[in-house]
Recover the amino acids of this structure.
């Protein structure tokens, strides 16, 4: 049974609710949905193709595979039901006027096609191992088309000839090579679909120890088959999804996606994706050139383009560095309406990009020795997500099919760390003494004392939920990449050190961290239903104290001069809120007192406590650097 849905009623989209015999048999399984395809010729063609595929799946394999012992039979190990027939030598053929059609070998069939003015199909018939027995099983013109004769007139002519040959035999003159034309049968074409060969190339490129970040099979579902389970979304009806064809995009979906950033966006990876070392693979069927099937976001540092004449382009740095993919020195031309497997391997250290298309490795792309990726917001993690549309321009929208999108890259802990200056023990001891004075008369609510060993709060005995991109270093503590906001969908508590109620007095508290700042990011973000207080390391390494959703901001200064932290150096930081007065101590030195004024108030959050976070979802920024200890006190 092949269920086909044509009623657009939303209540019918769930087959588990169907009643009667159809609902009983189908249950909660999938069906073929034509309800939204009647006004879209391309989508209707896709759905009808799926229907034909389902019919073939029920009726059995195509006739060429059923009787011919072709490529698919060899791969599956199923023997042909037709016995091999030895080829008659030319001398024996010459003594006969006709021979039975079913006795022809694939080579004789190829020769016969030449005699019937169908020589352009000889290679296809050889590749699919079409013998006389296979031709004898053809029941109609469609069977001939299925064997590879795409031109309807030729298919009709060939079927009529085969019908005559089944009745009266094949004239031997059609089976003898002509000395005036071809003296040997056409060479046997190799199958262009050899997944083992593609997989072998990819296995040779993929270094040991890399992690898989994307695994969107786009077959049974559109989820990333990794622990995060991110689900790809798309606009309908311009895009559609099916079990047999993967994700289809019609190239006309700008209006549907321009105001919905989450559509056609794969999982945001932040620091998990190493720009310097990655391998992306995917399967693609292109219906039209002049498109970008994959790129990285609003200012694409990496993009894959298909030109209007079907050349394959890899571009970097917002199309400033463009490279044509070549084979043997010539630009490769990609076919239309054919499934292709493509792999792209990036190694910045060697300044090399390697590309695999199908079973063939392309010429290596050699980048200039001066090549570097442009960094946006001075972060290597910025823009690390694949999109199926150019978000900056919405140009060159892809028309075709995609499936099996995978991405591998290095593990964050395996990468080179920045050089970190050793801690000054004298300064540290001085700072600890001053911190003791700041916390006199308070109660410790939270304490992570040794994050280079563990991330356990010794007061509440809870673990700090870490972002996937974080790791623990044996001496420097926990690394935060400064760009893990994208994890909120599958890891909403990442970077949340604790949550408190009335025991946390928001006008009387002390917060302290020991850190190595590596860039701009939030050292503290206190949140209830608004960001009522925060400590932010700015891009110039100055420190800003904020309140009331960043509507109030004060820089940490000494004698009115802003203090700048040293990137990559140990910093001890403590802040005390006492009424409307704020005292800050950095590395044992007291900053200028910050006075918020008698009129200052925490609107709507007085006495409400809140979350202690290292991430600010409102601004899309997080702490960037190493943390070795973190603590909170209140009265």
């Amino acid at each position: 049974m092949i269920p086909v849905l044509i009623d657009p009623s939303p209540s019918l989209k769930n087959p588990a609710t169907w009643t009667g015999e159809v609902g009983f048999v189908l249950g909660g399984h999938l069906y073929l949905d034509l309800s939204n395809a009647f006004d879209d010729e391309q989508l209707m063609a896709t759905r009808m193709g799926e229907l034909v595929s389902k019919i073939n799946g029920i009726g059995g394999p195509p006739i060429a595979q059923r009787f011919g012992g072709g490529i698919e039979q060899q791969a599956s190990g199923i023997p042909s039901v037709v016995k091999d027939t030895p080829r008659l030598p030319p001398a024996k053929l010459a003594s006969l006027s006709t021979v039975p059609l079913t006795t022809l070998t694939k080579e004789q069939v190829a020769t016969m096609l030449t005699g019937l003015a169908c020589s352009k199909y000889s290679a296809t018939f050889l590749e699919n191992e079409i013998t006389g027995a296979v031709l004898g099983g053809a029941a109609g013109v469609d069977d001939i088309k299925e064997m590879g004769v795409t031109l309807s007139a030729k298919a009709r002519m060939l079927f009529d000839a085969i019908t005559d040959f089944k009745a009266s035999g094949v004239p031997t003159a059609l089976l003898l090579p002509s000395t005036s034309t071809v003296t040997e049968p056409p060479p046997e074409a190799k199958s262009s679909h050899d997944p083992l060969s593609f997989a072998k190339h990819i296995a040779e490129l993929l270094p040991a120890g890399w992690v898989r970040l994307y695994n969107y099979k786009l077959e049974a579902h559109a989820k990333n088959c990794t622990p995060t389970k991110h689900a790809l979304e798309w606009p309908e009806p311009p895009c559609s999804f099916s079990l047999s064809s993967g994700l289809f995009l019609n190239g006309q979906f700008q209006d549907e996606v321009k105001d919905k950033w989450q559509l056609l966006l794969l999982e945001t990876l932040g620091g998990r994706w190493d720009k310097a070392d990655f391998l992306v693979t995917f399967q693609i069927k292109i219906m039209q050139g002049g498109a970008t099937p994959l790129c990285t976001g609003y200012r694409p540092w990496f993009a894959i383009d298909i030109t209007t004449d079907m050349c394959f382009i890899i571009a970097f740095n917002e199309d400033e560095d463009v490279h044509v993919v070549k084979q043997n020195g010539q630009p490769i031309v990609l076919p239309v309406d054919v499934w292709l497997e493509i792999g792209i391997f990036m190694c910045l250290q060697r300044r090399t990009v390697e590309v695999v298309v199908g079973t063939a490795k392309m010429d290596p792309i050699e980048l200039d020795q001066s090549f570097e990726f442009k960094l946006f917001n001075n972060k290597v993690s910025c823009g690390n997500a694949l999109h199926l549309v150019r978000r900056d321009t919405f140009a060159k929208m892809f028309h075709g099919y995609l499936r099996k999108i995978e991405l591998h890259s290095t593990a964050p802990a395996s990468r080179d760390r920045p050089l970190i200056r050793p801690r000054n023990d004298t300064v540290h001891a001085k700072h600890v003494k001053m911190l003791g004075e700041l916390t006199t008369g308070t109660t410790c609510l939270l304490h992570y004392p040794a994050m280079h060993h563990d991330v356990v709060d010794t007061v509440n005995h809870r673990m700090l939920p870490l972002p996937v991109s974080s790791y623990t270093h044996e001496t420097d503590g926990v690394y935060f990449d400064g760009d893990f906001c994208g994890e909120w969908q599958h890891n909403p508590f990442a970077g949340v050190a604790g949550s408190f109620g009335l025991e946390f007095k928001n006008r009387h508290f002390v917060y302290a961290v020991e850190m190595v700042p590596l860039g701009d990011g939030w050292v503290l973000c206190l949140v209830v239903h608004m960001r009522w207080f925060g400590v932010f390391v700015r891009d110039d390494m100055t420190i800003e104290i904020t309140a009331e959703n960043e509507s109030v901001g004060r820089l940490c200064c000494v004698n009115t001069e802003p203090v700048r932290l040293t990137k990559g150096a140990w910093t001890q930081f403590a802040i005390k809120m006492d009424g409307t007065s704020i005292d800050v101590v950095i590395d044992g030195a007291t900053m200028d007192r910050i006075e918020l004024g008698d009129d200052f108030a925490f609107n709507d959050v007085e006495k409400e406590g809140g979350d202690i976070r290292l991430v600010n979802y409102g601004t899309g920024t997080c702490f960037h650097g190493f943390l070795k200890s973190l603590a909170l006190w209140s009265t």
